[in-house]
Structure formats: structure tokens, C-alpha cells
Design brief:
Elements (H helix, E strand, L loop, with lengths): L10 E7 L3 H8 L5 H4 L3 E6 L10 E8 L2 E13 L3 E6 L4 E10 L2 E8 L7 H10 L3 H24 L1
Antiparallel strand pairs: 1-7, 2-3, 3-4, 4-5, 5-6, 6-7
Helix pairs in contact: 1-4
Length: 157
């Protein structure tokens, strides 16, 4: 893993939300709402029947300025009300949402560790269309913070 491809870096955003974990979980797992919060996601669609479950596949349509690209993600971890994680096959990234109860509501942590090198396709795509993997990682982390802030606002409204 090298810092140049963004693979050695865990991206992270977190917030304390003044709403119970069940309410935050319901919003988080309503993927039709996610494009309202994420600055990069246009749409997220299930590719297999059965709803949200471990090993479910999702098609993500992403955009950055004029660049639009698809991703296929697979739910890797699902602990309702606590943890949701999926692996994006095209990049090798794992996206993790963790919820924990607090006295005032819910602690939300959104992480993106990359446990191995980014895929060759991801490095090429990031270099050609996204200003490089490290620059795109900076944008992703900023976007994650925006997503968490928008989820928080929705849960608290």
C-alpha cells in the first residue's frame, strides 16, 4: 500500500446526532435518500432480490463534475442498527457506517479503510478522470463529512 494511491489512508467522518439509533438507521438504510446526502452518489440500486442483506449487490452511479461512472458494491457486514459495510469491487474500497447509542442520541462514524492496494482500474480511472487517487481521496473524505452532516440534519429535523 502506498500513500500515492490513497490505499494506506483511512478516510473518516463522524458526528453526534440528537436522534435515537433506530431513527438514524432507518434513514441510513433508505438508499433512495442517499443521493440527497452524498455529493458523489447519483443512485444506488439493488441488483438481486431480497432487500438489504449480507451479500446483496448494489449498483452505484457516481458523478464528479462531468464524469459519471458505475460501481458494483456488495454488502459485507450487516448488524441492524449498528453496522453496515459494503465492498466496492471496482476500487477495492470498503465503506463502513457504525452507529452507537449515546446519552444524547447516536454517534455516527463513517469510514473508508482500504485494506489492500486500490485496483489497477481504480488507479487508472482516478488518474485519468479524478485528478489522481490521493486528490480524489481528499474529495471523498470531504464528501463523507458532508454526507454525515446531511444525515444528521435529516435525523434531527
Amino acid at each position: 500500500m502506498t500513500a500515492a494511491d490513497g490505499a494506506g489512508r483511512e478516510l473518516r467522518a463522524e458526528a453526534d446526532v440528537a436522534a435515537p439509533p433506530e431513527q438514524v438507521w432507518a434513514l441510513l438504510t433508505d438508499f433512495s435518500k442517499m443521493p440527497e446526502w452524498s455529493p458523489e452518489l447519483v443512485k444506488m440500486l439493488p441488483l438481486k432480490p431480497g432487500g438489504l442483506r449480507r451479500d446483496q449487490w448494489y449498483l452505484g452511479i457516481n458523478r464528479r463534475k462531468a464524469v459519471v461512472w458505475p460501481t458494483r458494491s456488495v454488502v459485507a457486514e450487516l448488524d441492524p442498527g449498528r453496522v453496515l459495510a459494503w465492498d466496492t469491487k471496482s476500487s477495492g474500497a470498503r465503506w463502513i457506517w457504525e452507529l452507537s447509542p449515546t446519552n444524547a442520541g447516536t454517534r455516527v462514524v463513517h469510514r473508508r479503510p482500504v485494506p489492500r492496494r486500490l485496483t489497477g482500474l481504480s488507479r487508472l480511472f482516478a488518474g485519468a478522470f479524478l485528478g489522481g487517487a490521493e486528490g480524489h481521496a481528499d474529495e471523498l473524505e470531504s464528501g463523507m463529512a458532508e454526507t454525515v452532516a446531511r444525515l444528521k440534519a435529516a435525523a434531527e429535523s
